[in-house]
Design goal:
The structure holds two protein chains of two kinds. Chain A is α/β, with parallel strands linked by helices. In chain A, 50% of the residues lie in helices and 8% in strands. Chain A is built from 25 helices and 15 strands. Chain A has a five-stranded parallel β-sheet. By secondary structure, chain B is an alpha/beta fold. Chain B folds into two domains: 50-264, P-loop containing nucleotide triphosphate hydrolases (Rossmann fold); 265-335, no CATH class. Chain B has 13 helices and eight strands. Chain B has helices at 6-14, 18-29, 36-46, 50-54, 68-81, 131-146, 164-167, 180-187, 205-224, 250-263, 268-295, 298-311, 316-333, and strands at residues 56-62, 86-92, 101-103, 118-124, 149-155, 170-175, 196-199, 239-241. The longest helix of chain B is centred in the C-terminal third of the chain and has 28 residues, at 268-295. In chain B, 50% of the residues are buried. The model of chain B has no long low-confidence stretch (mean pLDDT 87). Classes of the chains: A alpha/beta, B alpha/beta. β12 (565-568) of chain A pairs parallel with β3 (101-103) of chain B. The complex binds cobalamin, guanosine-5'-triphosphate and magnesium ion.
Chain lengths: 668, 335
């Protein structure tokens, strides 16, 4: 070992920028410039229809096509996405889950068209469908079917694409849904255990090759602002994974037991107020996953300063990429061995996390494992409760967030002088052009071949054969994403996941200002009930494909706690369904939550349908990532109020909502 | 809005107009004194609805999380495919100190929102004792006037907050493999044997088979210790295994429901009357306690009175109010 400071620098981690939008062609251009900026891997963001198995021409895709990612419907789109990018030289990470088998099939088929042997492909499919039910919300099928898709992909790649990371077990999204470090550790580990047990149960992997599968498992982890604890969490992950792979799976090769992980740092804590502060948060969070060499991330992608405002522009992402480059290339970090080996403080904190996480792992296993704990809502409810506790602490000022509940005064920021230009906006024409292109695609392909390929998908799904081969054939035949998913919907049906809110309890303080406020709100609702004859009833709705449920969940719980009767049906409800529910449930107020950017299409649609159903009197409010200019438009269309992340004081929102019901009742 | 004509409202309800059904349900939930006359008038106008007489009121009850809502959803869809209409009332026990509630059953049901023949209303049991048992009974009457089948989902085993037996023609107890405590309750005769037993989550056949066998044993033991066999002795409680998520066993459940409905056809009116009597007495004693009952002459006299009044055309809700007034008046007289 060379003298400290003089030895050869470690190789830096892979630096990625999560991107994709509008069309395959536009995203291809973006990828080329990103690579030119020194980014070392591609990270593809797909739009919500592609992630949830719909084509652009599906009514459910309305308002979502090309918005938060690139639409990829068929091999033509995939070819355009990687045009001029030789796939044998790329390392491509695809954030794709329910439709991962399909998107990997399109990728492989595209490589084959480029003359590249699929054995040499490198990259990652996220393919952790379990956390979709818990946080991310792009699941399609029931958990058992999802597990089957996960294992089909893993058991295929282990021999056929040996350098592929077939799954990224995601704890990132759990923290984004409120998980504490202990919960993040525990629920990621039980997911990994569930997956490995399921792979084992397929019988497709010989006993002596199982270590190979374990060795390909990788993780996608979060790093929050409490960066010392987060650093210890990474070390705890390393220890616990070593334990699981050794004790439960008997893996003897230490290399196969290594905890390999990529990171996106925390975005939930990034604020709308004083957004420039987010850069500092992002950099500090990056330290947690880079400082200890023994638990360093292999790949990092960072959110941008304007995270809570809307989609980042290329410049915003570049700023975050520069932060990584400065840490890796300007500082001396990569010249040293592990900085914390032997630190009793780090050791003790790590041990504490190992112990608490292990106890929770045992608890979930006792309840039947990850799938069972998804189906019963056990984990989801825990996350919802943790998130509620976090929000309550911020609202009460117990958890300081600079620029939000402390140090609020300050000079105006030049960065936010023109907020509407401070984010990326996607041309609304993309929707129509993508639909037209899709129609052309469907016209020009050999429909006998696609029919046969789809029949084969359905047949295989009913057996326990691997779906990959049939899917790759279907990709070559010109089948679309929606068709592939629909074939499987025929076989497996669809699944609505537990919302976790019904049983969720929030520890409220019994005295003090917060308790007094709650008491006041409750009294007002009691009084309103006396006058109306019935308790005020609120419908919280999530129209469209948007899976961001945190806001809706927290509003629902808070509304219950101040005394509303609350109907919340979970994510991905159509406007028609929302109107039907409002009618049948006899609600007094409707709250829509949309964070995916499709509010201008969906909110007015709900409002119009309510009018058509004779329910135009019911006040409608909207919340989510809604730029001020859009909020004006929504209000002009009859929306009673619009809330965004800066409205973090839920008590104030509740007070408004009670006012609205009150006013409406008085008017009748 | 000017108050509407109850007879007209009732006509709209009987023609399954969703907006009217919804308004009627809002009205029966209304607890203001000044609304009571309208509620009574509406219910009276709905009393002889043809659908109500021919229809089927099915109570789905069972421990939390066994899949009642999911099952309701697939059951309703199957029933719809057979051309019958369905109204669902999901009673949610989530009652917290705030008086608010989170009504979660609807989240597990998936329906075609444009289907005019399907209606789902969630009701909270939050609030004062008996406060909502009250609305449930009336809500069932509204839905029964509008839809062929009414499904009442309640959570609980044995002594549930709303006695589903009082409002349902057929009581279906739903359990899942491994619901050991239910078996114990049944065996010990603590719990009435339901009209139909469903073992849901029967996706794993082996577990389901064992659960069905255990239940059969439990029912035999229960009958041996003399537990009440539903409401009549000559009905053999069928045990149906279902998987609500895979949609299996639903036809068997519908067959069992039809069979039970046929079985009680001749006694249906009496059975419903008996349920109403029980419901009135229950609500009255929850409101006014032992003292109320004894002041009005004790349980037997009260029961006879209730039966007489209901036979005479009184609606349960109005009767309850009448009894309350009687009690208050009697209180005034006793020093
Ligand atoms: C957490 C988070 C996630 C989590 C969501 C977990 C969950 N179960 O909710 C995870 C990691 C899964 C996720 C995933 C994605 N995300 Co995200 N996510 C966020 C993030 C960081 C925070 C959102 C949040 O939960 N805030 C906390 C809650 C409590 O706040 P809130 O929802 O805003 O609610 C408040 C108000 O808005 C309002 N409100 C909201 N709803 C309602 C309703 C009513 C009735 C009322 C009265 C008030 C109200 O009151 C609340 C209290 O203050 C935001 C950025 C940000 N910092 O805001 C991005 C963000 C929303 N995500 C974004 C994207 C693109 C995605 C993905 C689509 C990426 C991709 N291409 O795959 C995925 C897919 C998700 C999907 N299925 O739809 C974009 C959306 C871009 C846009 N609008 O144009 C954002 C803005 C980030 C960004 N700048 O790019 N995400
Ligand atoms: N495996 C399996 N899971 C099921 C089945 N039916 C329901 N579930 C799951 O069980 C959980 C609870 O289902 P619900 O329908 O909400 O149960 P419930 O009895 O209505 O619950 P409460 O109203 O809260 O008492 C959900 O996760 C369902 O997906 C089934 O037949 N098989
Ligand atoms: Mg239920």
């Amino acid at each position: 070992m060379a003298e400290y400071g003089k030895r050869e620098r470690d190789k830096p981690w892979i630096m990625r920028t999560y991107s994709g939008h509008s069309t395959a062609t536009a995203s291809n251009e973006l990828y080329r410039t990103n690579l030119a900026k020194g980014q070392t891997g591609l990270s593809v963001a797909f739009d919500l229809p592609t992630q949830t198995g719909y084509d652009a021409d599906d009514p459910l895709a309305r308002g979502e096509v090309g918005k938060v990612g690139v639409p990829v419907s068929h091999i033509g789109d995939m070819r355009a996405l990687f045009d001029g990018l030789p796939l044998d030289q790329m390392n491509t990470s695809m954030t794709i889950n329910a439709t991962a088998v399909w998107l990997l099939s399109l990728y492989i088929a595209t490589a084959e068209d480029q003359g590249v042997d699929h054995h040499v492909l490198r990259g990652t499919t996220q393919n952790d469908i379990i956390k979709e039910y818990l946080s991310r919300g792009t699941h399609i099928f029931p958990p058992a079917a999802s597990m089957r898709l996960i294992t089909d992909l893993i058991t295929y790649t282990v021999d056929e694409v040996p350098k592929w990371n077939p799954i990224n077990i995601c704890s990132y999204h759990l923290q984004e849904a409120g998980a504490t470090p202990t919960q993040e550790l525990a629920y990621a580990l039980v997911t990994a255990i569930g997956v490995l047990d399921a792979v084992k149960a397929t019988g497709r992997v010989p006993e002596n090759e199982f270590g190979k599968v374990v060795g390909r498992m990788s993780f996608f982890v979060n790093a929050g602002i409490r960066f010392v604890e987060e650093l210890c969490k990474m070390r705890a992950f390393v220890e616990l994974w070593d334990r699981v792979t050794r004790e439960r799976y008997g893996v003897t090769d230490a290399k196969q037991r290594r905890f390999r992980y990529g990171v996106q740092v925390n975005s939930l804590g990034l604020t709308e107020q004083q957004p420039e502060n987010n850069v500092i948060r992002i950099v500090l969070e990056m330290l947690a996953v880079t400082l200890s060499k023994d638990a360093r991330a292999r790949a990092i992608q960072l959110p941008a300063w304007n995270e809570a405002l809307g989609l980042p522009r290329p410049w915003d992402q570049q700023w975050s990429l520069r932060a990584q480059q400065i840490l890796a290339y300007e500082t001396d970090l990569l010249e040293y061995d592990d900085l914390f080996d032997g630190s009793p403080v780090v050791r003790a904190k790590t041990q504490q996390l190992v112990d608490s996480a292990w106890a929770e792992v045992q608890e979930v296993l006792k309840r039947g494992g990850a799938v069972e704990a998804v189906e019963t809502g056990y984990i989801k409810q825990k996350l919802v409760e943790s998130n509620a506790a976090r929000l309550r602490a911020i609202e009460a000022g117990e958890q300081i967030v600079v620029g939000v509940n402390k140090y609020i005064e300050g000079a105006a920021s030049p960065l936010t002088e023109n907020l509407d230009d401070a984010i990326l906006t996607v041309d609304p024409e993309v929707d129509a052009s993508q639909r037209a292109a899709l129609a052309r695609w469907k016209e020009t392909r050999d429909s006998a071949a696609t029919d046969a390929a789809l029949a084969e998908i359905e047949r295989v799904a009913r057996t326990d054969e691997n779906l990959m081969a049939a899917s790759i054939a279907a990709a070559h035949a010109g089948v679309t994403t929606g068709e592939w998913a629909n074939a499987l919907r025929q076989v497996w049906g669809e699944y609505r996941a537990p919302t976790g809110v019904a049983g969720a309890t929030v520890k409220a303080s019994r005295s003090g200002a917060a308790a007094e406020t709650i008491g006041r709100l409750r009294k007002r609702l009691d009084a309103l009930e006396e006058r109306m004859g019935r308790r005020a009833k609120l419908l919280v709705g999530k129209p469209g494909l948007d899976g961001h449920s945190n806001g809706a969940e927290q509003i629902a719980i808070k509304a219950r706690d101040v005394g509303f009767d609350v109907v919340y049906e979970g994510i991905r409800v159509s406007p028609e369904q929302i109107v039907a529910s409002a009618l049948e449930e006899g609600v007094h107020l409707i709250g829509l939550s949309i964070l995916s950017g499709s509010h201008l299409a969906l909110v007015p649609e709900v409002v119009q349908r309510l009018r058509d159903a004779g329910l135009g009197d019911i006040p409608v409010v909207a919340g989510g990532i809604i730029p001020e200019a859009d909020a004006d438009r929504l209000r002009a269309e009859g929306v009673a109020a619009v809330y965004t992340p800066k409205d973090f004081e839920l008590d104030n929102i509740m007070s408004d909502l009670i006012d609205m019901v009150d006013r409406q009742h008085a008017a009748e | 809005m000017p108050p509407s004509d109850p007879n007209e409202d009732a006509q709209h309800v009987m023609s399954s107009d969703k907006a009217a059904v919804s308004r009627a349900l809002n009205l029966v939930e209304d607890r203001r004194l000044e609304s009571q006359a309208r509620v009574a008038a509406l219910l009276a106008a709905l009393k002889d609805a043809p659908k109500a007489a021919d229809g089927h009121r099915v109570g789905l009850t069972g421990p939390p999380g066994v899949g009642k809502s999911t099952l309701t959803s697939v059951l309703a869809r199957s029933v719809r495919r057979r051309g019958l209409t369905v109204g669902v009332v999901a009673v949610d026990p989530s009652s917290i100190r705030s008086g608010g509630s989170l009504l979660g059953d609807r989240a597990r049901m998936s329906f075609d929102p444009t289907d005019a023949g399907l209606f789902v209303r969630s009701l909270a049991t939050a609030g004062e004792v008996g406060g909502l048992a009250y609305a449930v009974n009336s809500a069932v009457r509204v839905l029964a006037a509008a839809y062929d089948m009414v499904v009442i989902e309640t959570t609980g085993v044995g002594q549930s907050e709303v006695d589903v037996v009082d409002v349902a023609d057929t009581v279906v107890l739903v359990i899942q493999p491994g619901s050991g405590d239910v078996l114990q309750f049944l065996k010990a005769g603590i719990m009435e044997i339901p009209d139909i037993l469903v073992v849901n989550k029967a996706d794993q056949e082996e577990l389901a088979r064992r659960a069905v066998a255990d239940l059969q044993g439990a029912i035999q033991t229960a009958q041996a210790v003399g537990a009440a066999g539903g409401q009549d002795a000559d009905w053999q409680t069928p045990i149906v295994a279902t998987s609500a998520t895979q949609g299996t066993g639903i036809d068997a459940l519908i067959a069992a429901l039809e069979q039970h409905r046929k079985h009680i056809q001749s006694s249906l009116a009496a059975r419903r009357r008996q349920g109403e009597v029980r419901w009135v007495l229950d609500l009255f004693s929850r409101k006014h306690g032992e003292h109320g009952v004894s002041t009005l002459g004790g349980p037997d006299r009260l029961e006879a009175l209730a039966k007489r009044e209901l036979d005479g055309g009184q609606t349960p809700l109005a009767l309850c109010e009448q009894l309350s007034r009687g009690y208050v008046a009697a209180l005034g007289k006793t020093p």
